[in-house]
Amino acid sequence: MFETFDAVFLARLQFAFTVSFHFLFPAFTIGLASYLAVLNALWLTTKQERFLNLFRYWVKIFALAFAMGVVSGIVMSYQFGTNWSVFSDKAGPVIGAPMAYEVLSAFFLEAGFLGIMLFGRDRVGPGLHMAATAMVAVGTFISAFWILSVNSWMHTPAGFSIDPETGQFLPEDFWQIIFNPSFPYRLMHTVTAAYLTTAFIVGGVGAWHLLRHRRRGEIATGESRTMFSMAMWMAAIVAPVQIFLGDLHGLNTLEHQPVKVMAMEGHYESHPEGAPLYLFGWPNDETQTLDYAVGIPKLSSLILKHDLNAPLDGLDTVPDEDQPPVFIVFWSFRIMVMIGFAMLGLGLWSLAARAKGRLYDWPMLHRAAVLMGPSGLVAVLAGWVTTEVGRQPFTVYGLLRTADSAAPLAAPAVGASLMAFIIVYFAVFGAGTWYILRLMGHEPSPAEPRLKDVTTGPTHAAGRSPVPNAPKEE
């Protein structure tokens, strides 16, 4: 059934599908790990039970989301060898080391301290348990550091040479490879997005329980009020910071990947005397026009060049074969931006509610928070699509084309594995997500139960072997 398809297209679709599933979990757990560290620190310093109860509530969700993130991430590593073996061969000398560092530093750090964080509070003492919780949070950040460094190098390659015989990228300066021109901006923008994603999920869960108490005529618990309040503080403070970081990232992209910005803005034509900011439109790659365009004159030049009359080149200066799919990039960028401003609006609304003393009894605010609960996940996916599709038709920007990076596989082979991934992912991760939602549907209680060990004694992986003439246990 896949014989008429292009193998490269199917390989791209497969990687996009698996990485989209995977990206949702780290986008949640990076922020959630830090939130757990904050809750644990507040419990140790204040001894207020609500912080301990919230820690016990969210650590169960973290454990499940973290596990699904690990499992879904392993698959992508295999695809480098199966579907993208040419890319791995050519770029491996450069990106292999940072990806190995991610495993050796971040993953080992997370895995080493995760068990202590989950089960060790009563075993190792509060100080070491707090240190383990902090190490898990640091590990998630280090993991993002290395992965985003590799991804950023593919967008703004630096610190390498190309072997004229093999075509391989050879490392010359690892500092330039790691801290390539787009990396600091992408790291700040992505990690901040992860923190906002967690904040809006936590805020949505808190708002849901506040609404349930209101419908029942009950007083909301301190735990629900606390997590909603903390989430709204995060939204009010971090959302404007994220918009500022996004602007910096966009300016960096204009400098190093101007074609991507042309696609994001829908600029098929050059504008020598100031470019409009198109709010909406229908990109048409065939006619190279933005149909039904609605825009604000010269505002794009003001945002990108800080000058109303600054000239901006369009896609008419770029060969057709070097242009990304404009429709996808144009609309994914707008989805991300619209969600960002909606987050800002909710954060400002929460400040107004605080000022009026109505943070916990303003139903419209709570309904909006529930609606915005998954918005961070949508925004990070839209941002990822903008970034990665905007890099096309290259895997290493300007140097290695996607069509030249794929393994020599037949389309039916790639299509069959894609179908298998779709079936397994929706079954396994769908069940996991359903269970996470069930956990969120249960309100954190004043006596929230903790994660318990499977057994009070040592675990025997292979079971117990009978010992002849052994005394019976009392």
UniProtKB/TrEMBL annotation:
<dbReference type="GO" id="GO:0020037">
    <property type="term" value="F:heme binding"/>
</dbReference>
<keyword id="KW-0479">Metal-binding</keyword>
<keyword id="KW-0349">Heme</keyword>
<comment type="similarity">
    <text>Belongs to the cytochrome ubiquinol oxidase subunit 1 family.</text>
</comment>
<dbReference type="GO" id="GO:0005886">
    <property type="term" value="C:plasma membrane"/>
</dbReference>
<dbReference type="InterPro" id="IPR002585">
    <property type="entry name" value="Cyt-d_ubiquinol_oxidase_su_1"/>
</dbReference>
<keyword id="KW-0813">Transport</keyword>
<feature type="transmembrane region" description="Helical">
    <location>
        <begin position="364"/>
        <end position="386"/>
    </location>
</feature>
<feature type="transmembrane region" description="Helical">
    <location>
        <begin position="406"/>
        <end position="437"/>
    </location>
</feature>
<dbReference type="GO" id="GO:0046872">
    <property type="term" value="F:metal ion binding"/>
</dbReference>
<keyword id="KW-0249">Electron transport</keyword>
<feature type="transmembrane region" description="Helical">
    <location>
        <begin position="57"/>
        <end position="80"/>
    </location>
</feature>
<keyword id="KW-1133">Transmembrane helix</keyword>
<feature type="region of interest" description="Disordered">
    <location>
        <begin position="447"/>
        <end position="474"/>
    </location>
</feature>
<dbReference type="Pfam" id="PF01654">
    <property type="entry name" value="Cyt_bd_oxida_I"/>
</dbReference>
<feature type="transmembrane region" description="Helical">
    <location>
        <begin position="328"/>
        <end position="352"/>
    </location>
</feature>
<dbReference type="GO" id="GO:0019646">
    <property type="term" value="P:aerobic electron transport chain"/>
</dbReference>
<feature type="transmembrane region" description="Helical">
    <location>
        <begin position="192"/>
        <end position="211"/>
    </location>
</feature>
<feature type="transmembrane region" description="Helical">
    <location>
        <begin position="20"/>
        <end position="45"/>
    </location>
</feature>
<keyword id="KW-0408">Iron</keyword>
<keyword id="KW-0472">Membrane</keyword>
<dbReference type="GO" id="GO:0016682">
    <property type="term" value="F:oxidoreductase activity, acting on diphenols and related substances as donors, oxygen as acceptor"/>
</dbReference>
<feature type="transmembrane region" description="Helical">
    <location>
        <begin position="127"/>
        <end position="148"/>
    </location>
</feature>
<feature type="transmembrane region" description="Helical">
    <location>
        <begin position="100"/>
        <end position="120"/>
    </location>
</feature>
<dbReference type="GO" id="GO:0070069">
    <property type="term" value="C:cytochrome complex"/>
</dbReference>
<dbReference type="GO" id="GO:0009055">
    <property type="term" value="F:electron transfer activity"/>
</dbReference>
<protein>
    <submittedName>
        <fullName>Cytochrome bd-I ubiquinol oxidase subunit 1 apoprotein</fullName>
    </submittedName>
</protein>
<keyword id="KW-0812">Transmembrane</keyword>
<keyword id="KW-1003">Cell membrane</keyword>
<feature type="transmembrane region" description="Helical">
    <location>
        <begin position="227"/>
        <end position="245"/>
    </location>
</feature>
